[in-house]
Design brief:
Number of strands: 2
Mean pLDDT: 88
Low-confidence stretches: 12-49, 399-405
Number of helices: 15
Strand order of the largest sheet: 1-2
Oligomer: single chain
Strand content: under 5%
Distance between the termini: 40 Å
CATH superfamily: Ammonium transporter AmtB like domains
Radius of gyration: 23 Å
C-alpha cells in the first residue's frame, strides 16, 4: 500500500513537469453554423417575406475519408496483433512467451465482443457528461447508411465504431505488460472485461464523447494520451503493485529471451501508429498529413534520446533501449499529434525519450515495484509528458505556418486537470476491480506454476 501512495504522489508531481506557456486550440471550439444567405432587399413598403425553412441536407458518403479510416482501422488493429504481441513476447522469458502472446490475442477477441455489446454505446453515444447512452447496445439500430463524423467527414458509423474498437482493444492489452509472468489467465480475462467497461469507456466518453465533461473544459487529447496511455499505464502500475513482484525478481536473471521479436514488434507499432494518430483526423486531409509527419519526427527524436541517455549511463546503446525509446515517442506525441507542428513534435520526442528512460530504470528502482515490461514507465510516464507538452506546444492554427509556437498558460492548467482526473480515476477503479477479482477467484498463479512457466502451466504448450 505504501508503494501505491508513493506512486500517486509521484504521478501528481509529474503533472507539473514542463509546465510552460501553451495555447488553446481552436479545434476544441464548437463549429459555427453557416449563416443563411441574406434575402435581397426590396421596396420598403413591400411586406416582409415569410421565412423559409432550409431544406434538410442528406449526408453523402465521402469515399476518400472512408477509405482512409478503413486503412487506419486495420493499422491500429495491426498494432495489437501482431505488433504488441511480438513486442511483449520477446521481452519475457522463454517459458512465458506463448502465454504473453495469448494475452494479446485473447484480449483482442474479448474486447471486440465487449465493445459490440456495450462499450461503444457507453463511450460514444449521446448521454450525460459522465457516460454515454444505451441506444447502441449490441450495436442496435446501426444501419449501413448511418453516418458519423463531427466536421462533415461523412463516414459510415460502422467504420467509426470499428476504428474506436481498435483503440479499446490495445488499451487493456498494454496493461498486460505490467503483470507479465504471474497473473492467472481467468483472472486476466475478468479484469480486462470489467476494466474496459468501468474505466476505459467512461474516460473515453469524458474526453471524446458527445457532451463529455473533460472535452467541455477544453482538455486536448487528439488520439489517446490520456484515454489510452495514462489510463493503461496507471492501471499497469496498480496491477504490478497489487500482484507483487515476480519470484526471484532482483535475484535471478530475467533477461528478454528474443529481442528479434521485440524489435520486429516495435517496428510494427511504429508503422501502425500512423493509423492511430493520422487516422484520428477521421479524414484524408492536411491535418492527417501533419499528424503523420509529427508522429514520425517525435518517434525518431525519442528513440535517439533514449539511446543516448542509455549510452551515457550504461556505456552501450541497446536494441531494447532504442525500441523502447521509439515507443515512448509514439506515446508522447499521441495526444499532441493533431495540435502541434514539427518543432514542437521534435521537442516532445526528445523530452519523452529521456524522461521515460528515467521512468523505466531509476524510478522503478526507487519505488521498488516490479513492472515486468515497463508498461507504466513507457506508457504512463510518456502519456503524462505528452499530455502536458500538448498544452505547451499546441498551435492556434495548425494549418498555418508549421513550426511556429504560440503560448497560453491556461491550456497547461487544463491539461494538468485532464492528467490528474485520469490518474486518480484509473488508480482507484483498477485497485477496486483487482481486489474484487482476488477475493472471488484469486489473481496470481501458484508458486509452482510460476516457476514452471505459464506456457505449460496455463496453456499446456511450450516453445522448443
Amino acid at each position: 500500500m505504501k508503494q501505491l501512495i508513493y506512486a500517486l504522489a509521484l504521478l501528481l508531481s509529474l503533472g507539473f513537469y514542463g509546465a510552460a506557456p501553451a495555447i488553446a486550440d481552436e479545434a476544441n471550439q464548437p463549429v459555427a453554423e453557416v449563416p443563411a444567405a441574406a434575402v435581397p432587399a426590396t421596396d420598403a413598403a413591400a411586406p416582409a417575406a415569410e421565412p423559409v425553412a432550409p431544406a434538410p441536407v442528406a449526408q453523402k458518403l465521402d469515399s476518400g475519408n472512408t477509405a482512409w479510416l478503413l486503412t487506419s482501422t486495420a493499422l491500429v488493429l495491426f498494432m495489437t496483433i501482431p505488433g504488441l504481441a511480438l513486442f511483449y513476447g520477446g521481452m519475457v522469458r522463454k517459458k512465458n512467451v506463448l502465454a504473453t502472446l495469448m494475452q494479446s490475442f485473447s484480449i483482442t477477441a474479448l474486447i471486440t465482443v465487449i465493445w459490440m455489446v456495450a462499450g461503444y454505446s457507453l463511450a460514444f453515444r449521446p448521454g450525460s457528461a459522465w457516460l454515454g447512452g444505451l441506444d447502441r447496445l449490441f450495436l442496435n439500430g446501426m444501419g449501413v447508411n448511418d453516418m458519423a463524423g463531427t466536421d462533415g467527414q461523412n463516414i459510415p458509423e460502422s467504420v467509426f465504431m470499428m476504428f474506436q474498437m481498435t483503440f479499446a482493444i490495445i488499451t487493456p492489452a498494454l496493461i498486460a505488460g505490467a503483470f507479465a509472468d504471474r497473473m492467472k489467465f481467468s483472472a486476466m480475462l475478468w479484469f480486462m472485461a470489467a476494466w474496459s467497461l468501468l474505466v476505459y469507456s467512461p474516460v473515453a466518453h469524458w474526453v471524446w464523447g458527445v457532451g463529455g465533461w473533460l472535452a467541455g473544459m477544453g482538455v486536448l487529447d487528439y488520439a489517446g494520451g490520456t484515454v489510452v496511455h495514462i489510463n493503461a499505464g496507471v492501471a499497469g502500475l496498480v496491477a504490478a503493485i497489487v500482484l507483487g513482484k515476480r519470484l526471484g525478481y532482483g535475484r535471478e536473471p530475467m533477461a528478454p529471451h528474443n529481442l528479434v521479436l521485440t524489435i520486429v514488434g516495435a517496428a510494427m507499432l511504429w508503422v501502425g501508429w500512423f493509423g492511430f494518430n493520422a487516422g484520428s483526423a477521421l479524414g484524408a486531409d492536411g491535418r492527417a498529413g501533419m499528424a503523420m509527419a509529427v508522429t514520425q519526427i517525435a518517434t525518431a527524436g525519442a528513440a535517439l534520446s533514449w539511446m543516448i541517455a542509455e549510452w551515457m549511463g550504461k556505456g552501450k546503446p541497446s536494441v531494447l533501449g532504442i525500441a523502447s525509446g521509439a515507443v515512448a515517442g509514439l506515446v508522447a506525441i499521441t495526444p499532441a499529434s493533431g495540435f502541434v507542428g514539427p518543432m514542437g513534435a521534435l521537442i516532445i520526442g526528445l523530452v519523452a525519450g529521456g524522461v521515460c528512460f528515467w521512468g523505466a530504470t531509476s524510478l522503478k528502482r526507487m519505488l521498488g515495484y516490479d513492472d515486468s515490461l515497463d508498461a507504466f514507465g513507457v506508457h504512463g510516464i510518456g502519456g503524462i509528458v505528452g499530455a502536458i507538452l500538448t498544452g505547451v506546444f499546441a498551435m492556434k492554427d495548425i494549418g498555418g505556418t508549421a513550426g511556429m509556437l504560440e503560448g497560453n498558460s491556461g491550456q497547461v492548467v487544463t491539461q494538468l486537470l485532464g492528467v490528474g482526473v485520469t490518474v486518480g480515476y484509473s488508480l482507484v477503479m483498477t485497485f477496486i476491480i483487482l481486489k474484487a477479482i482476488d477475493v472471488v477467484i484469486g489473481l496470481r498463479v501458484s508458486e509452482e506454476e510460476e516457476r514452471e512457466g505459464l506456457d505449460v502451466a496455463l496453456h499446456g504448450e511450450h516453445v522448443e
